[in-house]
Amino acid sequence: MRIFHILDHSIPLHSGYTFRTAAILREQRALGWETYHLTSPKQGATQVADETVDGLRFFRTPVPAAGPAGINELRQMRATEARLEQLARELKPDILHAHSPVLNAIPAIRVGKRLGIPVVYEIRAFWEDAAVDHGTTAEGSLRYRATRAMETWALKRVGHAFTICEGLRADIVARGIPEERVTVIPNAVDVEGFQLSGDPDPQLRQQLGLAGRTVLGFVGSFYAYEGLDLLLQSFPGLLASNPDLRILLVGGGPQEANLKAQAAQLGVTDKVVFTGRVPHSEVSRYYDQIDLLVYPRHSMRLTELVTPLKPLEAMAQGRIFAASDVGGHKELIRDGVTGRLFAAGSAQALTETVSDMLAGRDRWPAMRCAGREFVESVRNWTNSVAHYQQPYARLTAAGRANG
């Protein structure tokens, strides 16, 4: 079976999107399927028309001239469509597999219709909700409604829809898509790619000013929905009963300046360490510095519907964490078993939960074991990718019958 994936962006860029993609592609190849991969203009300008990264060959789409909002997206879709049609005629895939956003689905639908190739669409988050978080639109605005309509239009015109969690699946079905045409491919981890957390490097700990301290932390991109402002808001209360506590924030992003200003306003600048972005190869060294990870995501459509990778990666490494009780977390975490949940948006709830966890470290070994066992037996890529088989087989059989 030949599957042609149409992607927003890919490795060597680093994001949850690219890591999920690479894991899916490798597991599909392990099943004996041939996979081809095209990235949209949002990959950015590249030196070559195709390149191999970590054993995966990616075809690139030329970046069109920029234009105003609306025109820019139209140009991107036209460029993706032209490149996709050229490659699909040459490679003759059995299925076109578009991944969100809808800017990839529409070109795939148009090419699939012209060439008689079945199209599937995989939604990892809705484009309109991502735009709300980025601050480029507001929920219910004209742009929001138009983007939502585009997503629904695409979903109604593909042979099958895939998504990453039950929250998004319910939203898709509510748009009028038959349940049997929507399949969840859950977020997972490559367990063999994660080693159990190790002892902190004493030299790095000294360098970060964390020697002899208990460390709360977060590793990733600083988006507003991650709720790091709530962690900082809670910090003075946590310090009152845990004076040796420190916060380690590893990464960067749109909220970095705001978080630094908040730390200064709270008078805790000397107790919050911002490392900036670190090389991917070094991330595990920084994780090892953290005693307790905190994922305080705010409640909004995006976080209620979408399951993140971070808690699964933490479980795979045997790490201890507390997370807000948004829907995306509740799908992954068994409160008190694989992690702890606290009321989203509540600084008091965060403070109480973290304080309780710090006071009950005797419960941590059992939590580490339960988390690791969950990803080993349930949330692994072999289990997740197996869910593609039946819809793919149905569509390719129908394609052959019609061809």
Automatic annotation (TrEMBL):
Keywords: Transferase. Residues 16-187 form the Glycosyltransferase subfamily 4-like N-terminal domain. The keyword Transferase applies. Signal peptide: none annotated. It comes from the Bacteria. Residues 203-363 form the Glycosyl transferase family domain. The keyword Transferase applies. InterPro entries: Glyco_trans_1 (IPR001296), Glyco_trans_4-like_N (IPR028098), Glycosyltransferase_grp1 (IPR050194), PEP-CTERM/XrtA_GlycosylTrfase (IPR024004). GO terms for molecular function: hexosyltransferase activity. Gene3D superfamilies: Glycogen Phosphorylase B. Pfam families: Glyco_trans_4_4, Glycos_transf_1. This is Glycosyltransferase, exosortase A system-associated. It comes from Parazoarcus communis SWub3 = DSM 12120.
